[in-house]
Amino acid sequence: MKLDNNINNDIKFLTKSEIRLKILSELNKEPDNVRGLVKKTEITYSSISSNISKLEKNNYITKIESKYHINPMTEVYFKTLMDFKRSLDLVNDFDSLWNKHDLNQLSINSVKRITDLKNSELIETTPIDIYKTHNTIKKQIINSNNVKAIFPYLHPDYPDLIEKLLKKNGSVELIIPQGIFKELMFRVNENLRKDAAAKGNLKVYIFKKELNLYLTICDGSMSLGLFKNDGSFDQNRILISNSKKSRNWASELFEHVKKEVDND
């Protein structure tokens, strides 16, 4: 309990002052002296000097020769605080996606690594373009050779998109609910479907439990869609990203859901 109190006190001390956080941010990049910190932060000399003294007195930083160095444990605290801040920023930026939506199918690790989605873009439908989200995903799939996807519902375009991928010898890996399996697969050309499955280019996993997640991972992009708390899929907004971190985040989530299929 004493250790927990010490950690809480440390966190409170560091977060209480924006100046201290700015100082730590600079020292986390490289050791520096007071004048250097004043120049980088554009904070007055007296304020930097005062807070440097407090940080040094409480053993958060150490002066070696003429420069201040951040201590190892302080570095851990600072990284934790910055990760938390980035998480809050991301949640606030995409509030309409997370708020009042079912997040239960996200893995614990997906939530922990939510900042990997920081370079994403929220695509929302408009009264003028009510198909904006679907057309965005459709374009991603058409421009890819390899697609992994979690389709919780059947859209009329899906069979055609799958056929086009398989015709160009692309690969398709799907997680779909049991209720749409036959209808989706039987709309794909039978010979093409069987040949692709034999080659390993078509893999389909049937999810027997409730599937409340939409996900696509294409060659250079990913997209994420969620269900509302009332159980209906939110077709009005999706999160898309072209960053490698986001695609890795999506791939890990895909594998997490696939394991649930294997364990079913």
Low-confidence stretches: 1-5
Mind telling me the C-alpha Rg? 25 Å
Helix and strand content put the structural class at alpha+beta
Report the biggest beta sheet as strand number plus sense, adding barrel if it closes.
Answer: 8 strands, mixed
- Portion of residues within helices: 40-55%
Fold blueprint:
Layout: H1 2-15, H2 18-29, H3 34-41, H4 45-57, E1 61-64, E2 67-70, H5 72-93, H6 95-98, E3 101-102, H7 108-112, E4 121-124, H8 132-142, E5 146-150, H9 158-167, E6 171-177, H10 178-185, H11 190-199, E7 202-207, E8 213-217, E9 222-228, E10 237-241, H12 244-262
What would your notes on this structure say?
By secondary structure, the protein is an alpha+beta fold. 52% of the residues lie in helices and 19% in strands. The chain has helices spanning 2-15, 18-29, 34-41, 45-57, 72-93, 95-98, 108-112, 132-142, 158-167, 178-185, 190-199, 244-262; strands spanning 61-64, 67-70, 101-102, 121-124, 146-150, 171-177, 202-207, 213-217, 222-228, 237-241. Strands 3, 4, 5, 6, 7, 8, 9 and 10 form an 8-stranded mixed β-sheet that branches. A two-stranded antiparallel ribbon has the order 1-2.
Structure in a nutshell:
The protein is of the alpha+beta class and 264 residues long. The protein contains twelve helices and ten strands.
Structure keywords:
single chain; 264 residues; alpha+beta; 8-stranded mixed sheet; disordered N terminus
